[in-house]
Amino acid sequence: MNIGLVAHDGKKKLMQNFCVAYRQILGKHTIYATGTTGRLIEEAAGLTVHKYLSGHLGGEQQMAAQIEHGEMDLVIFLRDPENKNPHETDLKSVIRLCDVYNIPLATNLASAELLLTSLSR
Fold this sequence. Notes:
Elements: E1 2-7, H1 12-21, H2 23-26, E2 30-33, H3 35-45, E3 49-51, H4 59-68, E4 74-78, H5 88-100, E5 105-106, H6 109-119
Helix pairs in contact: 1-3, 4-5
């Protein structure tokens, strides 16, 4: 499966910890992430990550295109609803496209854990 990972700045450490905890499951799949998030995941969890551009440089748009082309199977987007993001439109596009194309989407730690543990069954 192709799994997309995105994390707002305030959730990047949480994403690193999540990927370390679920390294065994994630390692069996192809991981895509926005630039900074991908680099941090590689460093923390030792996973191979196909990195897009950083989010503010168009990384979310690249992920959105992959969703539109049927090349993404699951997205985990740890978002920080308390902080406004300057490229919020691109981020909302990823969420909207997951709904349009029926792609499972987790936007918090609890739903992300449920999605990944279901992959291990």
